[in-house]
Amino acid sequence: SRINDMVLAISYARSEAVRRGAVVSVQAVDGGDGDNEWGAGYCVVVGDPGNCDEPVLRSFGAIDDATLDGVDGLDGIGTIGFNGRGIPTIAAAGAIELCSTDETVNPGRVLNLTRTGRVDANELECTW
What we know:
Elements: H1 2-20, E1 24-28, E2 42-46, E3 56-60, E4 66-72, E5 79-82, E6 94-100, E7 108-113, E8 119-124
Antiparallel strand pairs: 1-2, 1-5, 2-3, 4-6, 6-7, 7-8
């Protein structure tokens, strides 16, 4: 359900951007954590403000028993924005991996974000 919340947040931000004709972003609460950018929680905001203190459309809480880490083109990126046409404002496609902090729990999940803004989720074999 946690990766589904991230899929929901990204899809919601994209649809709101198109509806409003303006930039809408998914913003990590602590995007500076290079191994768990999204694990501290995230929110959907209008614009690209850089934090979840601005007018928030929707919030998602922290994950205590797993990591939610950007990889590939999303490594170290704490903001995923969409312009008024629903196109990501970041230049690269990438993925976000969800893995339990308990090494006996596998598989995890991976969310893939394409350059056009589409998302899908699949199983992932986590390595620690």
